[in-house]
Amino acid sequence: MAEPIPDVADERVADFRDLHAGDRPAGRERGTGPVIVEGVPAVQRLLASPYRVRAVLGVPGRLAELDLPPGVPAYEMDKWALSELIGFRLTRGVLASADRRPPADLDALLAGPDPAAPRRLAVLEALNDAENLGSIARSAVALGVDGLLLDPRCADPLYRRSVRVSMGHVLALPFAVLPDWPGGLARLHDAGYLTVALTPAADAVDLGDVDPRAHPRTAVLLGAEGPGLTPEAQAAARVRARIPMRAGVDSLGVAAAAAVAFATLR
Questions:
Q1: Cα(6)–Cα(140) distance, rounded to whole angstroms?
Q2: Region entry Disordered: which residue ranges (predicted)?
């Protein structure tokens, strides 16, 4: 049973105060603060994830759509008070907050539960757009990618906009930071991965020529929208590959390119 909250100053809903529509709230630095999840499907995925739920907040009627386990604090607000609390009009009707989990241990992520099993990773360089990161995470979960590796300049995968665009799927995807970039790619090679750098360059091989059966462990490198992968990252990868496209189209957006690559190398 949800407890009604009539006062936006109530400290029980402090996790949700001043979220703002597009900007990170003041005082909540990158990689800090609770994870915020929006919408019934995404909150359901949070409940099924290893993240500890701190609180759930929604408008009357929407909380009933959730299968809340015992002990999860649940609060109810009318839509006007909720909008005032979070700083924008929430169309999804429900939010949840959860404790952050630290990034995965890099060696454990590379090995996976079975070091002999096939494995796919997505490796992101300077991908600082939260929505692109969320879209890539959603495609990764859908298309059999087992984890994300981020260089130090990437956006926070647990930022609210990343979680929202991923529809909560990013909460099921382990991620780790590769601090030595791009030199740290050697650790992937040592762990048996073929690193495939996506680029639209004409001298790159056709992505379809990279046989996933011959390379049961593959890591796809993706760069930021616009600049793409740096020459240094491309040089550190084992293969430079391009997605074949019609003449006159030089590239795809990074989220679309990621989905094509994940499906091709599955």
A1: 40
A2: 1-33
- Cβ neighbors of 248 (< 8 A, separation 6 or more) are none
What are the pLDDT digits (tens) for 136-151? Answer: 999 999 999 999 999 9
- Is residue 182 within 8 Å of residue 233, measured between CB atoms? yes
Tokens found for residue 219 = 């890591």
Q: Classify residue 18 as left (phi > 0), alpha (psi -120 to 50) or beta.
A: left
The pLDDT tens digits of the residues spanning 186-226 come to: 999 999 999 999 999 999 999 999 999 999 999 999 999 88
Q: HSE-up of 251 (CA within 13 Å, CB side)?
A: 19
- Rounded Cα distance between 243 and 238, Å, is 17
- CA distance linking residue 23 with residue 266, whole number of Å: 35
What residue ranges define each of the domains in the chain, with the CATH number in brackets? Answer: 3-98 (3.30.1330.30), 106-264 (3.40.1280.10)
- The 10 Å Cβ neighbour count of residue 92 is 16
Pairwise CA distance, residues 121 & 219, whole Å: 5
pLDDT of 22 over the 60 cut:
no
User: For residues 169 and 150, what is the distance between their CA atoms, to the nearest angstrom?
Assistant: 17
Is the pLDDT at 27 greater than 50? The verdict is: no
